[in-house]
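Supplementary material to the annual report.
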Amino acid sequence: MKDLAATPSVDMLIVGAGFAGLYMLYKARSLGLNALVIEGAPSVGGTWYHNRYPGARVDIQSMEYSFSFDEALQQEWHWSERYAPQPELLRYANHVADRFALRDGIRLSTRMAGAHFDEAAQRWTVRAEGGQRWSALFLVMASGPLSSPNLPDFAGLKDFAGPVHHTADWPHEPVDFSGQRVAVVGTGSSAVQAIPIIARQARELTVFQRTAAYAAPAHNAPLDPEFEARIKADYAGFRARNRRMHGGFGSLLPPNPVSALAASAEEREAAFEQRWKIGGFAILGAFNDLLLNEQSNALVAEFVRGKIRSTVKDPRTAQLLSPTHTIGCKRLCVDSGYYDTFNRPNVQLVDISRAPIERFTARGVRTGGREFEFDALVLATGFDAMTGTMLRLDLRGRSGLTIQQKWHAGPLNYLGLTIAGFPNLFNIAGPGSTSAFTNVIVAIEQHVDWIADCIGHLHAKGLSTIEATEPAEAAWAEHVNAAARRTVFLSCNSWYLGANIPGKPRMFMPLAGGFPQYAERCAQVARNGYEGFVLA
Ligand SMILES: Cc1cc2nc3c(=O)[nH]c(=O)nc-3n(C[C@H](O)[C@H](O)[C@H](O)COP(=O)(O)OP(=O)(O)OC[C@H]3O[C@@H](n4cnc5c(N)ncnc54)[C@H](O)[C@@H]3O)c2cc1C
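Predicted assembly:
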């Protein structure tokens, strides 16, 4: 990283133009900062630009999964459906970029390769893959919790003669599976959304399943105009009530404040049934300990398995589709006809839990001693979540400490926002924060507001750097671990734990302690003069 004098200088460099990067730019400008966003993709929108597979849609209701920072924005935007589809979410991101005149601060098709902290200058030198450089006082990683697709190292994948599409890197021109034999590998959230639609188009669909998924019905529908008007009549109040919820959403249907174990079998059945009819994540709030107590969890898990058995006609397929792990331990999927799809004569389910994929061939795949042939392959194999994107970068803090060295045993940070040894670097919606358990837009707004307040504080005090201390970071890691131990989340192999990526250190990455408690803790740290940080 040489030629510093010739390097353009900005106050803040923001990596990523998803919702986090857009709001960070808006907020930085409101502080009077000269800020620049660099985005690897040729468009804003982040997740909703990349994930354009059939059926991609949000699974938190759109009246909630949207920005709250501007009253006029939330009043004027109209969502067409209860759960907006991907194209509409992408339009929304573009609308935000236009409405707040953000585009001139965003360099598209510009991928950050690395950033080094220059201790003499107390600034970050940021380098793009194309060779461009910037010097920045603040570096904000808005690079996404789920932005590095996971492409397993399948033997022979390159030999497969047909098209291969990863759900998170879907082609921009329409993909037509009509008349084709299609294979889907993976049964997580993206697969659960895509499979019903692909099955309607394809001649044959073969789904390769390693772990069965729990899915609750979305009951998606056009947005009810009366509901929309009711929310918009007091949108600010609605947002505030949601921010007081554990996951930053769902205030219209708070969790039942009773243990599942305290209810009779009939009461439990009625509560589960009522919430199943409402759809989405509502079922996990039928009692207050479903994600805390394995016995309670087993009751709701069995309820969902009952739904699978009553939906899927072939008992063997129903059995295979029935998960055995704790429900909610892996992110609950929200579906539109997923289980019912397996009643179609053109759909078959192949269990690869005991006999994994041996290799791909020119015509298909070999597993369990059998050969399956297909014309097109869909990989719904998820993401190297939470840390994958940062760990691919040449990111170096003080004394040349690399992010790979720093995070060799898992993502250490303080408040999920800052990293000791990496001054003036902020991470939005990453590990160590509640982001993955939250309506992520609520998490993003809280992070961006905190960062902006922090920079405002530095300015007010005539200071220019902030850095987490190692003791604060160690205590935070223990806080994150302790929160996970109070839940059922450690009872299965999930991406929250890094378990979907071979060789990735097992560390529970998101904070399970609840959004309001987390936001309050961040606010308290600020009120106490940024305890746990060194300011200079
Ligand atoms: C299919 C799918 C469905 C989801 N559904 C929900 C949901 O229902 N509810 C919910 O709360 N959350 C959901 N999420 C999580 C979602 O990621 C967040 O809600 C939110 O979109 C994250 O926004 P972001 O700006 O933090 O990150 P992203 O939207 O991921 O944006 C990050 C951007 O950074 C860019 N980038 C990364 N690395 C670099 C680099 N080196 N240089 C330059 N640019 C870079 C990427 O190209 C990307 O555009 C979903 C995620 C996926 C993948």
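The pocket of flavin-adenine dinucleotide is lined by residues 15-21, 38-41, 46-47, 49, 51, 56, 58-60, 65, 111-112, 142-147, 190, 389, 393, 428-429, 439-440, 444 (CB under 6 Å).
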